[in-house]
């Protein structure tokens, strides 16, 4: 079950196109690599779980030993990954900031293909987190299209009424309707930057994240302890069955 959850999470990262994960995985090759690693670890965990059950039911010591070894390696890999993320969090933050700033600078509603999917994912992030830009709405002043505008315009997803708009992406004019753009004179943009919104979300859900990680580690440790205990028990039973001379 644990392997299936990890496998499903890896597939979800690759398949998701409408959230902050989509922005990351479309912009950062490292996240795609991480997703493939999760899929591999999940599949390996499911295989090890099957071999562990087979070894326990049929009392095959080599399968139990293999199960214990692989589970220990997976647990060590998870601890190593957590340490790398913890000690490299500032580097990851800078990398993420560069990704988003580049996305904002080159945002163009007329683009098609994967770039369009990436932009729609960012619009979804701004709408759901109620934020605008990475550090704030002023980030959009670097956009190559908006720098040539003579009136105030932001992405529609920056508005605090964006959830009420049928138009969830593209630019909206905050002054007057020009060239068919949607005007909302008294609808200011979100003051909060998405960086603060993401950090706030992580802080609010930190307990859940730590709880899940701790639960996974406890289950793996329990599996290791039970498998090695059963392996020793099988050895003892086999020894007692040896006829006395």
Automatic annotation (TrEMBL):
Lineage top rank: taxon: Eukaryota
PROSITE patterns (UniProt xref): TM4_1
Subcellular locations according to the entry: Membrane
Family to which this protein belongs: Belongs to the tetraspanin (TM4SF) family.
Cellular component GO terms held in the UniProt record: plasma membrane
Chief location bin: membrane
Membrane topology qualifier: Multi-pass membrane protein
Keywords on record: Membrane, Transmembrane, Transmembrane helix
InterPro entries: Tetraspanin/Peripherin, Tetraspanin_animals, Tetraspanin_CS, Tetraspanin_EC2_sf
Record-annotated membrane-spanning stretches: 35-57, 64-87, 208-231
Lineage: Eukaryota, Metazoa, Chordata, Craniata, Vertebrata
Gene assigned in the entry: Cd82
Identification of the protein by name: Tetraspanin
